Amino acid sequence: MLAKFTKWLWDLIKSLFSPVWDFISDIFIAAVDGIVGAFAELIAAIPVPDWFAGGLAQSWGGLDPGVLWFVSSAGVPAALGIIGAGYAFRLVRKFVTLFQW
Length: 101
Prior knowledge:
single chain; mainly alpha; 2 domains
């Protein structure tokens, strides 16, 4: 008899607090969505500089062919790719760990 009563009481408590927990988690999700949306709006509002509007191809296209050959044989494009990949990895790691590292 006591086991039935405690099971009924436990089910009642769970049925009361389950919607409250769902509401709190929905508020948290809405807050995170708002923060991420505001951050995306902020990033989108940053203007692209005029000299970089065409990308690196346009910037490097105006260089002398001798300089382009030297830059290519020195491995500068590969080095810039590695630096960019490292920076992207660092940013992703910061976001995944919620800026703890």
